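From the pipeline queue, job 12 of 40. The input is one protein chain; the requested action is below.

Action: predict structure.
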Amino acid sequence: MKITAIKPYPAWSVWRNVFLVKIETDEGIHGWGEGGTSWRELGVKGVTEHLSQWLIGKDPMQVGRLWQEMYRSAYFEGGRVVTAAISAIDIALHDIIGRKLGVPVYQLLGGKQRDYVQCFATTGGKTGEEMIENAQGLVADGWECMRLSVQAPVEGYDAATFEPRMNIADNAKWLVKARETLGEEVVIGIDYHHRLSVAETASFC
């Protein structure tokens, strides 16, 4: 079996961009993968197209070898955009192998290790009150774990500005109110999207 085409698809999904890749083979088996670098999809697309020039004609069953060669063949290793493209390709290759062998991908990775995985929901709001109201709706729907986020900018800043020092205090206040409202049994967290430095994270905690 040989790879015949690698097709990248940057796409809009409800509220953010996603990046998908489809790999086709000469046996008619295809696989889908996703690269998780939101808002930089065109960069991931470019790396994917670059790698595809070398990958076409290769055996997709040699997934480990292909990963090593994709990652180590460049002068500079890694980088988020590069590894996002490699990740999308790697997932699609595993999908192809699973389809070829007629087994779920988890069987290729050591087998199923649990029968139940707890999931979390994400909610936010333009205000702290709206965030908590949305979180209460999740609890009513049976969610036991959730990620919270206040979307409103701090007063005096436009919506595109994030001021960590001021947001830390504001979000801490609303997390305390969320805990008081939702109770002790619900697992809650906050989504800061890597915006805090180590010092700011320590301050927030």
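Job complete. Strands lie at 3-13, 16-25, 30-35, 121-125, 145-150, 187-190.
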